[in-house]
Design brief:
mainly alpha; 0% strand; rod-shaped; 90% helix; 147 residues; Helix Hairpins
């Protein structure tokens, strides 16, 4: 019995490659978004820490420094929020590319499975015909020898 050969195997391999690349790009985009969210969380924790220690016992100069630091943290937070929004858009675009690549690969995988199934059915029928021919020939020779 000869081996099954899928004529579109190279295309299937190429689609596997594109899917893997899209998956890697999605992972990178999610990593960037996660890093930005971690930075946002650390800024929020720093603001809470400063707010807890902020009391009336400081001198005017210290209060001014703390206030400027809080303003800088607010600016940093705003910048990170904008970066997070942009990174989220990139994640969605990368996710869409990955889903398309995955869909394309799955379609070709299904075609391969169907053709392989058809091939095996055809080979099974061919084997059955050969066996029938062999057993039919042997039965004929036995009946001819008896006559």
């Amino acid at each position: 019995m000869k081996q099954f050969v899928f004529n579109l195997q190279k295309v299937l391999e190429l689609r596997h490659y594109y899917e893997r690349e899209a998956e890697i790009n999605l992972g990178r985009a999610v990593g960037v978004l996660s890093a930005i969210e971690n930075n946002l969380e650390s800024v929020a924790q720093e603001r809470c820490r400063i707010a807890e220690h902020y009391s009336a016992g400081y001198e005017a100069h210290d209060i001014l420094v703390i206030d400027r630091y809080l303003q800088r943290l607010a600016v940093t937070k705003d910048k990170l929020v904008q970066e997070a929004a942009e990174a989220d858009k990139k994640v969605e675009a990368a996710r869409e590319l990955y889903l398309n690549a995955s869909r394309d690969r799955k379609i070709l995988d299904k075609v391969r499975e169907n053709r392989q199934s058809e091939y095996h059915k055809a080979m099974l029928l061919e084997e059955i015909k050969e066996i029938d021919d062999l057993t039919g020939t042997k039965a004929q020779t036995k009946t001819e020898s008896r006559a």
